[in-house]
Amino acid sequence: RGRVNFNYDNQTQGTNILLVGSSIDSSKSFKMASWNMRWFGYPAMCSCDTALAKQQAFQVLKHLDADIYALEEVVEISQIRDLCAQLGPTYQCVFSNFASFANDSNDSQFGTAQKLGFIYNTQKINLLQSFGLLKSTYPANSNPYYCFSSGRFPFVMKASVQLGQVIDTVVFVGIHAKASSTLSDYQ
């Protein structure tokens, strides 16, 4: 990372350009990103222009140029699928079949609930399995909603990852933990 300053007649000009660069060959490296998208695609909760948010999200994803993105607070899966398609044919996505306040996709609240997902580059990543961590391990006679962060179970993506000639199995975990400041949030 660095900053380039322009000088003219020994005077620094007002424009600064920030640069990020790497000499590591992208075929031998792996870039990951995590993003809480704040009620993405649900204007009633994000208080935003969802069309503009989608355009800006594409710009962020494109410029991050990651091999995998762990996404939190996705409401409209179809909009993320559109973003994934815009990134190109080598990207795919997978989403949790559970969400905040909805333990499965058949729940009446699933459509407007916050889901977790991954967008990944299929040139390096092959999805093997995805599931909700801790979702099915709650104690007997207990509501699974309370077992991890108010139903926000970690979302796991098990994948085969290839860098150059090396192939290995990697487990990615997207976590959307409760993060407010009241006593009930901690409890």
What are the SSEs and their pairings?
Blueprint: E1 2-8, E2 11-19, E3 32-40, H1 43-46, H2 50-64, E4 68-74, H3 77-87, E5 91-95, E6 115-121, E7 125-132, E8 155-163, E9 166-174, H4 183-186
Parallel strand pairs: 3-4
Antiparallel strand pairs: 1-2, 4-6, 5-6, 7-8, 8-9
Helix pairs in contact: 2-3
What's the Cα radius of gyration? 20 Å
Structural class designation: alpha+beta
Estimate the global geometry from the Cα principal axes: globular
| Secondary structure: helix percent | 10-25%
Tell me about the largest β-sheet.
4 strands, mixed
The end-to-end distance, rounded to whole angstroms, is 41 Å
Mean pLDDT: 84
Unreliable spans are none
Q: Helix tally?
A: 4
Order of helices and strands: EEEHHEHEEEEEH
The total strand number stands at 9
- Note the beta-strand portion: 35-45%
- What's the arrangement of strands in the largest beta sheet? 3-4-6-5
